[in-house]
Amino acid sequence: MGVHRHELTREQWNKIRPLLPKKHGRRSRRGERSFINAVLFIARTGCPWRDLPRRYGPWKTVYNRFRNWAKRGVWEQIFHAVQLEPDEIASILDATIVRAHQDAAGGKGGSKRTLSVDLVEVSPRRFILSWTPRDGRFTSN
What tens digit of pLDDT does each residue of 23-72 get? Predict the structure, then answer.
């Protein structure tokens, strides 16, 4: 089986494997790596849990396990272990990961104009319907 675009490489997996918690309860049929890859797929694509590809197993099982790890602080421990130390000289922030809430555009103090006002300016009406019927039908002036 080849590595899919959103999955861990062998080197990444070898770094993360020792950080995983010891087995509690039932063992995963597909293994720890498949579970981590499923979570990465959700995180990287932003798709709903229900749209998780079948190769990762039942979405509800993956979701429940993800939530259990989150409640136990497993994800936080992994993130702290693999995070890079900031460079004293320079650091880079990739702004492509920063997203604003949908209501952030045109917030308080922003433009009070609406789309309909802008559309009227761009394409004014060329005719007006007459609301007075002539011979039982409406006509334009």
Answer: 665 666 678 889 999 999 998 888 999 999 999 999 999 999 999 989 98
**Could you tell me the two tokens for 50?**
């229900």
CA 52 to CA 18: how far, in whole Å?
26
For residue 112, what is the DSSP state? -
Percent of the chain with pLDDT over 90: 21
CB 17, CB 24: distance < 8 Å: no
Return the SS3 of 71.
Answer: helix
Domain boundaries defined on the chain: 10-82
Determine contact, residues 130/138, Cβ cutoff 8 Å.
yes
Question: How far, in Å, CA of 105 to CA of 110, rounded?
Answer: 8
Nearest to 9 by CA among 37, 30, 42: 37
